[in-house]
Amino acid sequence: MVSGTDHRDHPEYAGPRARPSARGALTPVIDRVYPLEEAAAAVRHLESGHPRGKLVVTI
């Protein structure tokens, strides 16, 4: 146990209760990848309510 700090700042100290994302146990599902020039299309897709995963905008 670490005193004087918040375990959320150090997920390695949270033991088995550590968030799955902090342990690397989750893999995000990427629905689509958009170039920055098509960011407006990415927002429209997001607002449509139909994404099946994360939308990525590359720069």
What does this structure look like?
- This is Zinc-binding dehydrogenase.
- It holds the Pfam family ADH_zinc_N_2.
- The chain has 59 residues and is an alpha+beta fold.
- The chain has one domain (7-58).
- The chain is 22% helix and 19% strand.
- It is built from two helices and two strands.
- The chain has a two-stranded parallel sheet with strand order 1-2.
- Strand 1, helix 2 and strand 2 (54-58) form a beta-alpha-beta unit.
- The chain starts with 19 loop residues before the first helix and ends with a strand.
Which percent range describes the beta-strand content?
A: 15-25%
Count of individual helical segments:
2
Taking the alpha carbons of the first and last residues, their distance comes to 41 Å
The general outline is: elongated
Question: Over the alpha carbons, how many angstroms does the gyration radius reach?
Answer: 17 Å
Overall residue-averaged pLDDT value: 80
Order of helices and strands: HEHE
Helix content: 10-25%
Number of domains: 1
Largest beta sheet, briefly?
A: 2 strands, parallel
Low-confidence stretches: none
The computed structural class is alpha+beta
Biased composition (Basic and acidic residues): 1-12
Protein name: Zinc-binding dehydrogenase
Pfam family, one: ADH_zinc_N_2
Region (Disordered): 1-22
